[in-house]
Structures are given as structure tokens and as C-alpha cells.
């Protein structure tokens, strides 16, 4: 009887030491749940790539708006001609040379108005009356040095019908603005999903770590009972085949332990890569997990929130607007094109130098004595233009497609939010049940242990009770992880992840871009 009591005490001591060892040593890399979200945004490579794509969302709009920038113009031309000597060329010369230099500024406004300010300098030279052998008597004095003509002018052009005051350009700009917002919100949604995926990697490591601890505890427990059985055999309290049974169980658990080690290391490497951490990072066993249910879970309120904030539903609203703008543009294309243009300025001319045209206050450009005026009106009308008809048809098809997409998405968003709420409530209930199960199995194990100490249960009953308790601990960890995954999918379903953790969407854009 004393031997049996000693064996029982030894088993209790070994099992207790094993449990204490499993609960200690909780030091390493750790983050709160809010910090984990922000850390993933700043460090996960896939998230960083998505953020870089987010920075490119307005590229097409910026390229389009580039057409409204001021532009500097400059041009140089040389026109030289030679003709045979005949009666027609006596007065014009057999050789002429015209050199033209121009510079200015131009701009297209959003109203469709084209504006240009230009300064032009022209040098004209002819050999007329310069050759005494080919010049009639008395005409030699008509030979002139180079003639310099300078002009300063303003040109304005405007489309009055098809693209009346830039209507089509403004429609296109608004379409591109909507497309930019659609792309930006889609990329923000991708960032949110990638952040959740990173958190899942974090939690998956927690599950693998718990699995490793489970098999580690099972291995210790199996060794303890096997060694105890060997001692009992020496005391004549057990048979040799019982030792064989425990040896077989020990080999089985060792195989499971090796698999758990490999899976834990794989999850650790993936998490290190996901969070962009040093290779030698040691993770804390306690990972950031939420165990509370959101206080305001309501179908109607959450669905309404999703309609206002989800990227896909907001995109539909913008697509509808784009379809209307495309229809307006297509109808405008069926109108005649009427373009009015006018140029007004002043010029001066002399035989001295181009500078003299600006410095001569009496006859220079700024004397405003020699105006230059030019106007034009250009009209064209599409007749039986199939391209115009196709544009109107495609715009109408686009409107119908968007209407169908909106009807389908309205139901899909509603169903998605309801499903996420249902799954969230169910997983919370599973987690709460797992807590109670783990607590009950712990009490059961402690009761079996006390009864074993009193000699009313055998070692196998203790092992089975401990195995059940350890498995329930692992199930609880998995239930917590599943609940947190569903919680964050619920946030993503109504596009509230960043708001939930205080992340400003404007700061998702990388700095220095």
C-alpha cells in the first residue's frame, strides 16, 4: 500500500511539473491587436505593394489634366527658294530667303477655350535688283536690304456646338475622377483583406504553437505513465505487455510531435516573412485575440453602413454617373462641330534690325499702329456616321448593365453582411462553449487526479483525462482564432476595419510619392 501511494505521489509531481513548464516562459515578440493591424500595414510586403498601387490610382486623371497645363512654344523655320531669271522674276528676284522665329505660351482651359500668346520675328531677303547685269537701267536703286517683320498676337479658339465650352472634356474629366475613386477604394479594400490575411498568419502560428504544446504535453504525459508502468512492473503491479502498449503509444506521439514541430516551424517562417521580421525573431505565445462580441450587431444598421462605405457598392454609384456622362458625350458627338477662332495683335516692319521693331516708339509694335486681325469659323456635320450611332448604343447598353449590376449587388451586399453577422454570432457561441468545455475538462482532470491519488483510478484514466483536457485547450485556441477571423471578415464586409482600429485611410498612401 505504501508503494502504491509512493507511485501515485511521484506521478502527481511529474504531471504538475509538466503543466507548470507549459505555462511559463511567455516572453518574445508580441503586439496588441490594434498594433498588429498597424504593423501589418507598415511592414507586410503584399500590403506595401497594394499601397503602392493605391498611390497610382489617380495616374490616368493626372495625365488627362496635363492637357490643361501651360506650355511654352518655340519654332524656327527657314524657307529658301531659287528661280531661273526671266521676266516674271525681275521684280521678285531669283533667290529669296525667309527666316521665321516664334515663341509663346499656350493653354487649353476646362471650358474648351484655347489661348495662345505668340511673338514672331521674320526676316525676308531677296536678290531683286541687286545684280547690275540683270537689272534694267534705272532700277538699281530698288534693291533693298533684308526686311524685318515682328508680330505680337493673341489667339483664342472655342468649340460652340459638339464640345460646347468644353462639355465633353468636363464629362471625361468627371468620368476619370470617378474611375480614380473606384480604383482607390478597391485598392483600400485589397489592403484591408491583406491585413486580415496577415493577422490570420499571426493566429495560425498561435494554433500551430498550441498544437506543438499539446503534443509536447502528451509526450511528457505518455513518458511519465510509461515509466510509471515500468516501475509498477518491477513491483509486480503490472504486466510486461502493458509496457509494450505504452512503448507503442510513445512512438506514435513522438511521430505526431515531429510533425507538430515541422508545422510550427513552417508557420513561424511564413509569419516572419509576412511581417517582414528578422529570421531570429522569437514570438510570444500569447497572440492578440479579441474575445468580446460587438455590442451593436444589427442587420439593418450594418447593411446601411455597408451601402455607404463598401467599395463595390460605392463603385456602382459612380458607374451609374459615368454611364450618364457617357450618354451625354455620345449625344454631343452627334451634333455638328462649330469652331470659332480669332487672332488679334500688332506688328511692325523695318530694314534695320528686329530689335528696332520693339524699341521704335513711333512705328514699332508697341506703337499699336499696325494691327493684325484674323478670324475663322469651321463647321462640320456628321452624316450617317456609324461611329456616332455606336457610341450612343454603347452608352445605353452601359446604363442597362450598371442597373442590372446594381440590383444584383444590392442583394449580394445585404446577404454578405447578414451571413457575416450570423457566422460571427455562431463562432462566438462556439468559443464560449469551448471555454466552458475546457473549464469542465480541467475540473474533471483535477478530480481524476485526486481520485488516482486515493487509489480509485488507474494511470490510464489519468492519461485519458489529461489528453482530453489538453485537446480541449487546443480546441479553445482554435475557436478563439476562428472567432477573430470571422470578426475581422465582418469588419471587412461592411468596410469598417480601418475605422475600427483608428487607421486613417489618407495615411495608407506611401510617403514621399
UniProtKB/TrEMBL annotation:
Keywords: Cell outer membrane, Membrane, Transmembrane, Transmembrane beta strand, Transport
Places the protein is found: Cell outer membrane
Pfam family, one: OEP
Gene Ontology CC terms, in alphabetical order: cell outer membrane; efflux pump complex
GO MF terms held by the record: efflux transmembrane transporter activity; porin activity
Family: Belongs to the outer membrane factor (OMF) (TC 1.B.17) family.
Name of this chain's protein: TolC family protein
Amino acid at each position: 500500500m505504501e508503494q502504491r501511494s509512493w507511485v501515485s505521489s511521484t506521478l502527481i509531481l511529474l504531471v504538475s511539473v509538466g503543466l507548470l513548464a507549459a505555462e511559463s516562459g511567455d516572453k518574445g515578440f508580441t503586439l496588441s491587436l490594434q498594433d498588429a493591424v498597424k504593423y501589418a500595414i507598415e511592414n507586410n510586403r503584399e500590403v506595401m505593394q497594394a499601397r503602392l498601387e493605391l498611390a497610382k490610382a489617380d495616374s490616368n486623371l493626372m495625365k488627362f489634366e496635363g492637357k490643361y497645363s501651360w506650355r511654352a512654344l518655340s519654332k524656327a523655320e527657314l524657307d529658301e527658294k531659287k528661280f531661273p531669271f526671266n521676266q516674271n522674276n525681275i521684280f521678285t528676284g531669283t533667290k529669296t530667303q525667309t527666316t521665321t522665329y516664334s515663341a509663346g505660351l499656350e493653354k487649353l482651359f476646362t471650358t474648351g477655350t484655347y489661348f495662345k500668346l505668340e511673338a514672331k520675328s521674320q526676316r525676308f531677303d531677296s536678290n531683286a535688283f541687286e545684280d547690275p547685269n540683270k537689272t534694267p537701267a534705272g532700277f538699281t536703286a530698288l534693291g533693298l536690304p533684308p526686311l524685318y517683320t515682328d508680330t505680337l498676337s493673341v489667339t483664342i479658339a472655342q468649340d460652340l456646338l459638339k464640345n460646347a465650352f468644353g462639355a465633353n472634356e468636363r464629362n471625361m474629366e468627371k468620368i476619370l475622377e470617378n474611375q480614380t475613386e473606384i480604383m482607390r477604394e478597391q485598392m483600400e479594400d485589397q489592403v484591408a483583406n491583406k491585413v486580415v490575411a496577415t493577422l490570420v498568419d499571426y493566429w495560425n502560428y498561435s494554433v500551430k504553437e498550441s498544437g506543438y504544446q499539446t503534443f509536447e504535453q502528451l509526450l511528457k504525459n505518455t513518458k511519465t505513465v510509461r515509466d510509471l508502468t515500468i516501475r509498477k512492473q518491477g513491483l509486480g503491479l503490472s504486466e510486461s505487455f502493458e509496457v509494450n502498449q505504452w512503448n507503442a503509444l510513445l512512438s506514435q506521439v513522438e511521430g505526431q510531435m515531429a510533425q507538430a514541430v515541422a508545422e510550427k516551424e513552417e508557420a513561424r517562417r511564413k509569419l516572419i516573412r509576412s511581417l517582414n521580421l528578422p529570421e531570429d525573431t522569437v514570438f510570444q505565445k500569447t497572440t492578440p485575440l479579441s474575445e468580446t462580441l460587438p455590442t451593436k450587431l444589427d442587420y439593418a444598421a450594418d447593411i446601411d453602413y455597408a451601402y455607404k462605405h463598401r467599395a463595390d457598392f460605392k463603385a456602382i454609384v459612380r458607374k451609374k454617373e459615368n454611364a450618364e456622362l457617357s450618354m451625354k458625350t455620345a449625344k454631343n458627338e452627334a451634333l455638328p462641330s462649330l469652331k470659332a477662332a480669332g487672332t488679334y495683335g500688332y506688328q511692325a516692319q523695318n530694314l534695320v534690325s528686329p530689335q528696332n521693331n520693339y524699341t521704335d516708339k513711333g512705328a514699332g509694335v508697341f506703337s499699336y499702329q499696325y494691327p493684325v486681325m484674323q478670324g475663322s469659323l469651321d463647321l462640320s456635320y456628321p452624316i450617317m456616321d456609324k461611329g456616332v450611332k455606336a457610341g450612343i448604343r454603347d452608352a445605353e447598353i452601359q446604363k442597362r448593365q450598371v442597373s442590372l449590376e446594381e440590383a444584383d449587388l444590392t442583394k449580394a451586399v445585404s446577404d454578405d453582411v447578414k451571413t457575416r453577422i450570423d457566422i460571427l454570432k455562431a463562432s462566438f457561441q462556439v468559443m464560449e462553449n469551448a471555454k466552458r468545455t475546457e473549464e469542465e475538462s480541467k475540473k474533471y482532470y483535477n478530480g481524476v487526479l485526486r481520485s488516482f491519488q486515493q487509489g480509485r483510478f488507474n494511470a490510464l484514466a489519468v492519461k485519458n483525462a489529461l489528453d482530453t483536457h489538453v485537446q480541449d485547450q487546443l480546441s479553445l485556441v482554435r475557436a478563439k482564432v476562428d472567432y477573430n477571423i470571422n470578426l475581422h471578415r465582418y469588419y471587412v464586409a461592411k468596410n469598417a476595419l480601418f475605422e475600427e482600429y483608428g487607421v486613417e485611410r489618407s495615411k495608407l498612401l506611401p510617403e514621399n510619392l
